[in-house]
Amino acid sequence: MNRFKKRLRLAVASSVAGSLLALAPVTHAAPNTFDDNTFGVAYGVSNGGSNPFFPIFQADATGSASSVEVANASGWTVDTMGNTLSLTWNKAAEFMNSGSPAFIGFKITDTGNHLADFLGASVTNTTYTPSTYGNLVEGFDQAHVTFDANNIYVNLNTAMWHAAPMASMGDPLRDHIALSVNFQSAPPIPEPETYAMLLAGLGLMGAIVRRHQRSLGNHGE
To answer: What InterPro entries does the database record attribute to this sequence (predicted)?
Structure first.
């Protein structure tokens, strides 16, 4: 009898544990793509440190793999696809930033908490391609990209664009910044077959009870 009770307790514990796991609420991972998700685009300035960011331009955008999200953000086109973020100068005017203020550029923000946390953003168009637009903006490099969980900052305070080459600067083909954004990956989400697990546990319990009853019946004959 004691062995039977022990086996029954184990079966009950197994069934209950499995059922609780199956019935636990499932939290779905935030998406690690801009596509079909809303985010904020702001262009502005800051004196750095704890000083506030003052937007000159700001808008909400919804990621699209087939169209440009923002056609003109203070002279820049903002485009996303998947986990990539592209900024392209429209070349309507020249500019040359001298390093002041401490920050002048873009802040990309997960305003509605729709995206997974940002873990970084890497410049991907560092290899120069002659005779082709799309090369990395002059005066800009990886060190000008910073981030936190909800924001990516693209600092253009030393960037420039000139329509014609100059003595040591001024390459009109350098009009673009391409970033690959690294999102936080969520652990795999278990999706157990709830009722199958519950029925399996109950079936095991029933089999043990029936076996014990048969054993008692045999002993009573």
So the answer is: Ice-binding_C (IPR013424)
